[in-house]
């Protein structure tokens, strides 16, 4: 069996396991009761903020691309959402590659040239961990071992990424050699894969050598996306008639979004619900059933948006979804 197909199957089984664990932790009847009180107006506003957050992320990617190709705002957004849709379907980060493939089809840009911008774009998402770290001493929240490990891992990822960005401006070759040495302890088959990604990532960060003025704009877009993410989730709570402190939303949903950096089951089945309970119920003391109803509603609602816009993006690009699977299998 193809290794990637095996990984997808394992991901689905893991997600189903998370889902069963989540169901055991909640009162399903109470969750349904909360769901019946949904306010459609607030739900529509939540959807607007959700899409706006991704507009800013696509603007960030467009800015990173601007040193070698100019694309329209709408094209950047649809390509970004199509990639996100593909990542949602399969847990192998296929969406990163498909964005570069779209550019190859539409602008004849080699995948090797645009792919570094995709890796770099992903790294800037981790900047949101700074908000989480600042809020920890301000808020009264009980952090589980999993959440502490997640915060530490993402913080390290951000530190390494920023170090690479600033050091590669001075010496691209030296930072590549340094990073290769750090991972040289890995078995050869894993080291070869990581080695290629290191070269691509450093190549992407090197764009700031001649275009450092892009850095503040990229940082602004990153934090703007975090703000609209938090507004999306604030209105999800409002749509279920639940009042909540904005800082709690900012902390909680930012951490939920950052958890997507680590491998997830297809469509984040079960994993979203569990981490929501860890943050808002175990950590902040909110009712499990209420929190679960909001996460379930959010999961279904965002899936509809993501799939709809993702399919529009694929139609716009002229690339078939089946073709995207074949590209990632190569």
Order of helices and strands: HHHHHHHHHHHHHHH
- Mean pLDDT equals 80
Low-confidence stretches: none
Alpha-carbon distance between the termini? Answer: 15 Å
Number of helices: 15
- Class from secondary-structure proportions: mainly alpha
Radius of gyration: 20 Å
List how many beta strands DSSP finds: 0
The percentage helix is: over 70%
Strand content: under 5%
Note the main sheet: none
Please state the overall shape, judged from the principal axes of the Cα atoms. Answer: globular
Task: Summarize the structure in words.
There is one protein chain. With 330 residues, the protein is an all-alpha fold. It has a domain at 3-11 and 38-132 and 213-329. It has 15 helices and no strands. It has helices at 3-25, 28-35, 40-65, 73-89, 94-107, 111-125, 129-135, 145-170, 172-182, 188-205, 214-239, 246-258, 271-283, 288-317, 321-329. α3 crosses α4 (73-89) and α12 (246-258) runs antiparallel to α13 (271-283). The longest helix has 30 residues, at 288-317. The mean pLDDT is 80.
What topology emerges from the helices and strands here?
Layout: H1 3-25, H2 28-35, H3 40-65, H4 73-89, H5 94-107, H6 111-125, H7 129-135, H8 145-170, H9 172-182, H10 188-205, H11 214-239, H12 246-258, H13 271-283, H14 288-317, H15 321-329
Helix pairs in contact: 2-14, 3-4, 3-6, 3-11, 4-5, 4-14, 5-6, 5-15, 6-10, 7-8, 7-12, 8-9, 9-10, 11-12, 12-13, 13-14
